[in-house]
What does this fold into?
Amino acid sequence: MVSQISILAGHGRDGQPDARPRLDLAMGEIISVVGRTGSGKTTLINDIELFADGDTPTGRRLLFDGRPVSVEDRDDPARNPIALITQHTTFLSDLPVDEFLTTHARIRARSLAAAADVVAETLEFANQLTGEPILPSVRMTELSGGQTRALLIADATVICDTPIVLLDEVENAGINRTRALELLRRRRRIFIFVTHDPRVALLSDRRLIMREGRIAEVLETDAEERRLAPAVSRLDDMLSHLRERLRDGQRVTLADLEAFS
It folds into this structure.
């Protein structure tokens, strides 16, 4: 399994190089990619997913444990070390959830008995990420946005077992973000979030700051930011609570605010 990926510097739209000639990301790290709209966040994710080798507009190169990706890992979906999950992902399959997951597990060269165990683990993992329980008998196309994202994250982490998981702005789709980050950290993968979410950013190990298509800065999450993270989470929970009350057609009262003070 890949234990480290390295991003060798490319350049932004302004011709300026990335902030570091070589950026190493190690197994177990959670990385946030942040920046304004159009700053190059998704472009960076695409470079990683495409195993960039100086052949993308940014000129970046990717190394896996110090080497370019092998032809076998690049061309064989079962060996691909990267899983990408986006906010726009939808299912074309109309299979029940358990049948879909079992089929995927069998494709990954697992026996029927082993597949049953890993499907149960995947569903348990997914149901810890979303407040809407995912039932095995529900059809894939009937899942909500939050359930879909939770199932995809669980599928990539448990069934695919890929060492690198890229998540492009999925955190606002019904996912319990604090719980998700706790669970993902235990899995010892390299998780890279494209995000606008302060909670996700502050709970990450490092933030890659994008400007004009380049990595302008790399910030380590420091001790003060870690101390502030719980307060930021409470503010975010309060806003989510107010949003749900308004969606349900309810009135907002002072008590709704005081509940989070």
Observations:
- The beta strands are 4-8, 22-26, 30-34, 61-64, 82-86, 164-168, 190-194, 206-211, 214-220.
- The chain has a mean pLDDT of 88.
- The domain at 1-81+164-221 is CATH 3.40.50.300 (Rossmann fold).
- The chain has three domains: 1-81+164-221, 88-161, 225-261.
